[in-house]
Structure formats: structure tokens, C-alpha cells
Amino acid sequence: MTMDIRLARVDSRLLHGQVATFWTRFVQPNRIMVVSDSVAKDNLRKTLITQVAPPGVKANVVSVNKMIRAYFDSRFDSFNTLLLTENVGDMLRLAEGGVDFSQVGINIGSIAYTEGMTMITDAVAMDDHTAKQVAALVNDFHLDVTAQKIPADKKIDLLSLIKKKNFNLE
């Protein structure tokens, strides 16, 4: 048996109001796992994240490798997890490490715009590198990767959108 992942979400803002209210109510986790090598090393960010968890839900901040180990550790089988990463690359590393997202797919909530990126939805920015990572999650791991800000929003197939925007997937 392994940890029950109820939502796997990429959100550059990590744990914030939409996640703490809408998504937590929707998936009813008993644990929020924020998976980020950089945040795991930053005590201030780690403290802030663990403090904004909604009542009754404990939040942890761990590195990618620690999350992979925890996923396969029977001591964490009781976790009903809402899993958050800041970027698609960390989610891909988790999949490569054997974390099974086949039951939930990957939800892309927000990817912040930086220089050289293209906005493909009102909340998701993409460049060729990130588009290739999305394609790997879909093609190599056979996962549904969708953009969706809150549960009430319609899911948008991200790879179809990427292909329409002519990103270089080679």
C-alpha cells in the first residue's frame, strides 16, 4: 500500500487561498505535502506555508527525494494527500521516482509568467522547456494534465493547448 494522493497540483504560489479553501474542501485531505527542494531549505517560507494550512489539515514541506521515499514508506499510508509543487519539473521528477499519479492526473493551477514565456491561459505561462515536461507527463507516464484554477472551473487539456500554441516539443 502507498500514500493516497487525492490531488497533485502545480501552482507557483504553492499553498494560498484557493488551495486552502476550495481545493481542500473538494478533495478532503488530512495532509498537504508541499514538495520543493528550494522551499524545504528556506525556514521562513517553510514556516509560513505550514501556518496557512486550513484547520484540521497538517502541512509539511519536503524535498522531491524525501517525498519519493515517503510515498513508498508504509508509515505514511494513512495520508490522504493534497500534493503541491511549484513547477512541472518537480512533478515530473516525482513521476520518474515512481509516484503514481494515474488515478488523479496532474492539475496545473498557476505557472507564473517570467521573461520568455507565453501565457496560454489567464493563470498558466509556458515556455518550450515546460511544454516538453508537460508532454513527458502525458506521453511517458500516460497522465491527464489539465489546467484548472478551482474545482468549479472546467478542466482544460494542457497538451492540446500547448500544441495549438506551437511550442517546440522536440
Structure description:
It is built from seven helices and nine strands; from the N terminus they run βαβααβαβαβββαββα. A hairpin with a 5-residue loop joins strand 6 and strand 7. The strands form two sheets. A seven-stranded mixed beta sheet has the order 3-2-4-1-5-8-9. It is of the alpha/beta class and 170 residues long. The model has no long low-confidence stretch (mean pLDDT 94). The protein has one domain (4-164): Fructose Permease, CATH 3.40.35. The protein has helices spanning 17-27, 37-40, 43-51, 64-71, 88-96, 128-139, 158-164, and strands spanning 4-11, 31-35, 58-62, 80-85, 106-110, 118-119, 125-126, 145-147, 156-157. The radius of gyration is 15 Å and the shape is globular. Residues 1-169 form the PTS EIIB type-4 domain. Keywords: Cytoplasm, Kinase, Phosphotransferase system, Sugar transport, Transferase, Transport. It is found in: Cytoplasm.
Question: How are the secondary structure elements laid out?
Answer:
Elements: E1 4-11, H1 17-27, E2 31-35, H2 37-40, H3 43-51, E3 58-62, H4 64-71, E4 80-85, H5 88-96, E5 106-110, E6 118-119, E7 125-126, H6 128-139, E8 145-147, E9 156-157, H7 158-164
Parallel strand pairs: 1-4, 1-5, 2-3, 2-4, 5-8
Antiparallel strand pairs: 6-7, 8-9
Protein name: Putative fructose-specific phosphotransferase enzyme IIB component
GO cellular component, one term: cytoplasm
Keywords: Cytoplasm, Kinase, Phosphotransferase system, Sugar transport, Transferase, Transport
